[in-house]
Design a protein that fits this description.
There is one protein chain. The protein starts with a helix and ends in a 5-residue tail after the last helix. The protein has one domain. By secondary structure, the chain is mostly helical. Helix 2 runs antiparallel to helix 3. The protein contains 3 helices and no strands.
Length: 87
């Protein structure tokens, strides 16, 4: 598989996470925390023998990157929104 396809897939994961955060704003903090946990679970659980190869690796990487950026972005956005004091 071409390394450019992998870079494009990972860039699409980051872009999709940012677009979804922009469109839907930050949701409840526990959804973003659960997203981070899910990213680590996907990364650390061994894949079955039938799910090996370059395409499943790219899909797994896409999901990990997406959940990491969506989780971290939502938590950071949520913290920055609650930091403002209203008069």
């Amino acid at each position: 598989m071409s390394p450019y396809f992998v870079m494009l897939a990972y860039a699409a994961a980051v872009a999709l996470a940012i677009v979804l955060l922009y469109h839907f704003q930050a949701r409840a903090w526990y959804w973003h925390a659960a997203s981070l946990v899910l990213a680590f679970v996907i990364g650390y659980v061994p894949a079955p023998e039938s799910f090996t190869g370059p395409v499943p690796d790219a899909i797994t990487g896409f999901l990990i990157i997406f959940f990491l950026f969506w989780g971290l972005g939502g938590l950071l956005l949520d913290m920055s929104l609650h930091g403002h004091k209203h008069a």
